[in-house]
């Protein structure tokens, strides 16, 4: 490995960066809009809306490790991403 130069895959780097950008954008919109919907449309107090958002975060933390399909050998999502 000594003396070999590694090349940066620009296409994959931009693709991954754009994916993280979209995730962060969606996350910010979700955290801004959902509490307003809970208080305005469903008539919840801000405290109850905060409890719902906190439960949402806890459930996301518990659910996320099991939603990954990297452990499934024939997962189509992994094959699609890796082929780019």
Describe this protein's structure.
The protein is mainly alpha-helical and 84 residues long. 68% of the residues lie in helices and 0% in strands. The mean pLDDT is 82.
The overall pLDDT average reads 82
Low-confidence stretches: none
Main beta-sheet strand count, sense and barrel state: none
- Proportion of helical residues: 55-70%
Number of helices: 3
Task: Please identify the structural class as seen in this structure.
Answer: mainly alpha
Question: Cα-atom Rg, whole angstroms?
Answer: 19 Å
Secondary-structure element series:
HHH
Number of strands: 0
**Coarse shape:** elongated
Essential attributes:
84 residues; mainly alpha; 3 helices; 0% strand; elongated
Write the layout of secondary structure elements.
Blueprint: H1 10-40, H2 46-63, H3 76-83
Helix pairs in contact: 1-2
Summarize the structure.
The protein is mostly helical and 84 residues long.
């Amino acid at each position: 490995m000594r003396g070999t130069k590694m090349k940066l895959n620009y296409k994959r780097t931009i693709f991954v960066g754009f994916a993280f950008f979209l995730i962060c954008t969606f996350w910010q919109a979700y955290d801004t809009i959902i509490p307003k919907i809970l208080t305005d449309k469903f008539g919840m107090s801000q405290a109850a809306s905060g409890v719902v958002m906190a439960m949402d975060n806890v459930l996301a933390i518990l659910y996320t490790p099991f939603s990954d399909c990297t452990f499934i050998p024939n997962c189509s999502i992994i094959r699609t991403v890796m082929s780019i």
